[in-house]
Amino acid sequence: MKRGLALFVLVAAAAAAVWWAGAGKRPPNVVVIAVDTLRADALGCYGAPGDPTPRLDRLAAQGVVFDAAVAAAPWTLPSFASLLTGLYPGAHGAFDVDRRLQDDRFTLAEAFAEHGYRTAAFTAGGWLKESFGFAQGFEVFDEETETGKFREKIDRAVRWADGDDDRPWFLFLHGYDVHSPYAPTTRPPPPEGYEPPGDALADTLIERVEGNRSTTDLPVSDVATAYLTVEPSGGSAALARFRKAYAGWEERFAKPVEELWRRSDDFDDALAWVEANYAAEVRQLDRELGPLLDFLDREDVRGETVVVLVSDHGEGFMEHGVCDHELVEEDVVRVPLVVRAPGVAARRVASPVRGVDLFPTLSALTGAPPPPFAQGRSLLPALLGEELAPEPACSFQHVARAAGGVEASLRLGTWKLVESRRVDGGAALFDLGSAGGETVDRKTEQADRFAWMRKALDRIRDQSDRFHRVHESGPGTLDPETLEELVELGYLGILPPRSAGEDGAGE
Ligand SMILES: [Zn+2]
């Protein structure tokens, strides 16, 4: 970096870090709105047609929108652990279903607590529970949920934030509103001539599997579609039974069900129906976040509160053969990231940024202690309109239990390296800026770049491994009750490898 530019960045960063102190104010409040499974391109502000998210778009129009935010992992547990530690999954260690975030990792909530903030998390359970290590640093940690949706907890969260206390606050809000099964209150109209499967199919599947009866007459397309769109009546217990029954049914096929589903006559209509239900859930989410956004817009709150909108991963809709997450392709690892901060002008940032950058960024904005070791960096210069120097942005999917090893991607500018058993030769290089995007492998014509990026990925992996070895205080330290719960829900041992890390265990 040129000296003059470096100096300017330092001055600008210092100015932002003390904007509140200079005015004799306390540090700003911080709220992180963490929408599980939200694809960036499902939001109007990221180009979704039809004005699906007017409320969130307004927030985005007042803040800094990161167009290429990369999640550190394509599923809930490791991705949120990365957001809250500034570490990649290999370093924080919570990268498989039987692992938790160790107590010796320093979290964002602990940084705020140390900095004199009061802290609260209202989560929708599943992986985001105390048993997985997420309660560290929170004075209030509310993980109980009936619906898994934001609407259940917004009132409580707002009452807590609006409480009579002089300390600044850090509020972490999480909901599975748009996670499968996509079951919006108002269903979209099905494609003409297509009859979607209903609750009855879910019940039938549960009864048959639990009674060891044949399921061969059930149409693959209907069962797959029901799994993605039907929320069986009876709450989380019924959903858990349905998931378990589905896993048992899926085991009969020695290949992903999606492969068979794709060959069904009604596949195009069924997929359109699935996607329409996801989109309807995103619309509903936007409406249901209204009371929270109203509170954050209140005159006395807005001027002293940093608002972050983020997701842990997106969702694939068969772009890469899967209707799910747990892939390192763009549908899944590109997530929305919006930061609205007092005194920070609205803008868009095209350079790739990372989930692991959130912690250092919020430290820079508030003066809270930064992570002692971080694999991300502060995005404050970007918030202030500076160009970011290019840095690799990685995602890791640990599938070691299934002999597939670790899948990974590395993004640098528009180039993206993917290492996966699903691509030819185990690794591919894509130019996301070209028309072919993530479909045309350019590793042969870009051999040098390909080799260099693989080395860069190896270095980050090695760094994570070394950090983990130094800090690991014991393998698989989940308490026996949680382990039993996971086995009961079908997460350990019986699921095919592709679904091994599927989330929503406790929704
Ligand atoms: Zn998730």
* Biggest sheet details: 9 strands, mixed
Give the overall form.
globular
What's the N-to-C terminus distance?
A: 48 Å
CATH superfamily of the largest domain: Alkaline Phosphatase, subunit A
- In DSSP terms, counting alpha (H) and pi (I) runs of 4 or more, how many helices? 19
Provide the structure class. alpha/beta
Percentage of residues in strands: 5-15%
CATH architecture label name of the largest domain: 3-Layer(aba) Sandwich
DSSP E strands, number? 15
Number of domains: 3
The proportion of residues forming helix, as a percent range, comes to 25-40%
Query: What is the radius of gyration computed over CA atoms, rounded to a whole number of angstroms?
Result: 22 Å
CATH first level of the largest domain: Alpha Beta
CATH topology annotation of the largest domain: Alkaline Phosphatase, subunit A
Which consecutive residue ranges, at least 5 long each, have pLDDT under 50? Answer: 1-12, 492-507
Average of the residue pLDDT scores: 88
Q: What ligands does this structure carry?
A: zinc ion
Brief summary of the model shown:
This protein is an alpha/beta fold. It contains 19 helices and 15 strands.
Keywords:
Alkaline Phosphatase, subunit A; 3 domains; 9-stranded mixed β-sheet; 507 residues; 4-stranded antiparallel β-sheet; 15 strands; disordered N terminus; Arylsulfatase, C-terminal domain; 15% strand; binds zinc ion; alpha/beta
Explain the overall architecture.
The protein has 507 residues and is an alpha/beta fold. It folds into three domains: 3-182 and 280-392, Alkaline Phosphatase, subunit A (3-Layer(aba) Sandwich); 199-275 and 479-499, no CATH class; 398-471, Arylsulfatase, C-terminal domain, CATH 3.30.1120. Helices cover 36% and strands 15% of the residues. The protein has 19 helices and 15 strands. Strands 1, 2, 3, 4, 5, 6, 9, 10 and 11 form a nine-stranded mixed β-sheet that branches. It has a four-stranded antiparallel β-sheet with strand order 12-13-14-15, covered by helices on one side. The chain has a two-stranded antiparallel sheet with strand order 7-8. Helix 8 (199-210) packs across helix 9, helix 8 packs across helix 10 (235-250) and helix 9 runs parallel beside helix 12 (267-288). The structure holds zinc ion.
